[in-house]
Amino acid sequence: MLRFIGCLGSLTDRSDPLKPQLPLRTSLLSLAALLTAALCTGPAAAESAAPTGTAHSPGPTATVALDPDTGRPTLAVSAGGAQVIAPSPVGLVTEHADLSQKLTLTGHDTRSVDETYRATAGKSRLRTVHARETAYHLRAGGDGGARFDLVVRETSDGVAYRYRLPAATTATTGAIVRETSAFTFPDGTDAWLNAYRADNENRFTQYPAASAPTGSYGMMGLFRTAPGSYALLAESDLTGSYAGAHLTHTAGSATYGVGLWNDDPVRVAAGKALATPWRAVITGSLATVTESTLVDDLAPASRVKDTSWIEPGPALWTWLAGGKEAGQSLEAQKKYVDYAAERGWPYEVVDAGWYFLPGQWEVIDPEWQTRNWMPRLVSYAKQRGVRIQVWLHYSLLTDPVEREKWLSTLERWGVAGVKIDFMDSESQDRFKWYDDVLAATAQHHLLVNFHGSTVPKGIQRTWPQVMTMEGVGGEEKRTNTAEHLAILPFTRNAIGSMDFTPGAFQRPYRPNVASDAGELGLSVLYESGVTNLAGTPESYDQRPVARAYLEQLPRRWDTTRLLLGDPGKAAVTARSAGGRWFIGGTFAGAARTVDVPLRIGAGKWLVETVTDDGDGGLVRTPHVVRGGDTFSVPVVADGGFAAIACRWSAERTTCDR
Fold first, then answer.
1. Which residues contact 44 (CB under 8 A, 6 or more apart)?
2. Of 181, 153, 158, which Cα lies nearest the Cα of 232?
3. H-helix or E-strand spanning residue 400
4. Which pLDDT score, from 0 to 100, does residue 338 have?
5. What distances in angstroms separate CA 412 from CA 3, 180, 310, 450, 476, one per listed residue?
6. pLDDT means per 10 residues in the chain (657 residues)?
7. Distance from CA of residue 37 to its chain's centroid?
8. With 0-12 CB in 10 A as exposed, 13-18 as middle and 19+ as buried, what is 155?
9. Local structure of 149: helix, strand or coil
């Protein structure tokens, strides 16, 4: 087999650059120089002529190889001299062409990707992208075969690849039937996975990667390939030109394949060029994976030129607080608005029921545009500095005429945003719907929260009005575990904003029911452009320490740091805003005292922790801590904590504003 081990000199023995490792056919000898330079993506691989092994970069390195006998391509990923992804298949199979074998390399192009952009929501505001991208030009089945590119991008925190088919290829290949894309992990790898379903809401569970049950899993699996080394699989730049992906696995195998929605062929307009979504491997330390913005970085730039109207921020969400009755009551909603105004929260979210016939459920009032109470609520809220977001069933927005009627009316009323629910599909048709709705909500200046949905796949960069998405087993679930809570920061929430809806202290089903401090910490631990706080006003008033903390929540985060992490056991994250740091932590297991490293900068800090007092209440405790040192936090079983940190001075007694 002709292999390309490392980025240069792959055809030769390192002691003698001209001595072949394996017998080569004459037809292959003429390609040696081209293949040696081209079939590696490490920095300087194409430019340098020194055949001395893998070229090193600040981050992970991808190695592409092509088997000379079968013409099958593979891609491997290494970092710090260790294998992260073993050589794994890449390729596509279409109705009329197999683009996964009998391939030949015809050339390659390399470019640098250097970008800076500002996010409206997410882990950090200012994003900087530096990447090396190589496009390998491949041809199937001889001189007249279909041509396509394997595009590989390397960054400091990951490797991603996609397939690019020119119009001449799609004119003859027909629909894409499947991908041969896969990821093979080293022996001994551990995995944290959630069984795949349309709304991405199943719990995460830990398995030995090879021993996970046969089945399909979400495209956001975390893998520990070696002590301290992790890889998170993800997808980016998914639009209506393709279908959503998930992971497939057979028990006993270390390989995870890429499956498409219901195995339906992806329809590509004949003669139209296609770039598939990126298949990404975010890799490095657990902090690197958690803090990475690679999924957004891979996506196209914003399609919304003026983003000045897009404002994230906390919201009082009324569904778990008031249910159906609240959704059909103007007076109830006014009381929630009053409470949000008292807390300084910029939004109140009216959930299902507001456009139904009074006293009925799921029966739309045919005169909703003229006799609904929503305009009165919007006006009432505006006078108190609160804006309204409203729930919609996605089916109201499938017909273009109806979609325009709903969205234009909401904009005219002054509604700030829409929570769109029950898509429950990752088919190509559903992503075409997403494309249409995203363009329409941007046109009508409406913030968006998708529920019953896919997960963010770079959507928040391209469409910055998307504040958050569900795609998670959140606070509404009655089957969550403490382990699940401690996995989410490293899996689902590492992908993008996550509407977990924390703060429902009144819920008897939350995993941290014995820890109000743990529930409070979720408001920071889980990032969401609009943090929908799910508690009742009464539950907040009964917990004045928690209420005071939630009043301090900022509208957006400047940056994110992982302070402590052990998937399924512990997660502590710090997020900064305006010079202060907010800290949230959750833990699974027995009660204990935890030493948390303060990785937020040098100097002295005032750190005010909120912990459980052991008698069902909360206590706020000040600490003076030097950056880089640790502070101790007592946590109850399956509990957690919250904190605020600010620069210490002798005159400062609190971090509150």
1. 7, 55
2. 158
3. helix 400-413
4. 98
5. 63, 48, 17, 22, 32
6. 31 27 26 38 33 46 97 97 97 96 97 98 98 98 88 98 97 95 98 98 98 98 98 98 98 98 92 96 98 98 98 98 96 98 98 95 96 98 98 98 98 98 98 98 98 98 98 97 98 98 97 97 98 98 98 98 98 98 98 98 98 96 97 98 98 96
7. 34
8. buried
9. strand
Report DSSP state, residue 410: H
What is the rounded CA–CA span in Å between residue 284 and residue 60?
Answer: 8
* Encoded tokens for 317: 């969400």
Q: Which of 465, 363, 375, 369 is nearest to 419 (CA)?
A: 465
pLDDT score for 58: 63
Distances (CA, A) of 295 to 136, 194, 260, 310, 487: 22, 19, 19, 21, 18
State the DSSP H helix or E strand holding residue 544, giving kind and residue range, or none if neither: helix 544-551
356 DSSP β-pair partners: 364
CA dihedral 590, 591, 595, 596 (to 10 degrees): 80
Cα–Cα distances in Å, from 55 out to 13, 80, 237, 284? 16, 11, 29, 18
Residue 273 burial (C-beta neighbours within 10 Å; 0-12, 13-18, 19+):
middle
Residue with tokens 């055949």: 51
Residue 268 region by backbone torsions, left for phi larger than 0, else alpha for psi between -120 and 50, else beta: beta
Claim: this prediction has a pTM higher than 0.85: yes
Q: How many CB atoms are closer than 10 A to CB 419?
A: 26
pLDDT of residue 51: 24
C-alpha–C-alpha distance, residues 86 and 539, integer Å: 51
The three state secondary structure string of 485-514 is HCCHHHCHHHHCCECCCCCCCCCCCCCCCC
Residue 118 tokens, joined: 């500002």
Dig out the tokens for 581 from the structure: 């740091």
Return the residue matching tokens 């969400």: 317
- Helix, coil or strand: residue 8: coil
- Of 140, 148, 147, whose CA–CA distance to 98 is shortest? 140
List of residues 6+ apart from 147 with CB closer than 8 A: 106, 137, 138, 139, 140, 166, 168, 169
Is residue 475 within 8 A of residue 320, CB to CB? The reply is yes
As annotated, the active-site residues are 421, 476
- Residue 627 token pair: 């950056």
Residue 637's pLDDT is 98
Residue 430 CA to residue 424 CA, distance in Å, equals 9
Other C-beta atoms closer than 10 Å to the C-beta of 176 total 26
- DSSP string of 287-326? HHHHH--HHHHTSPPPS-S--TT-----EEE-HHHHHHHH
The structure tokens listed for 338 are 């009053």
Strand ranges (E), 318-386: 347-350
| pLDDT on residue 464 | 98
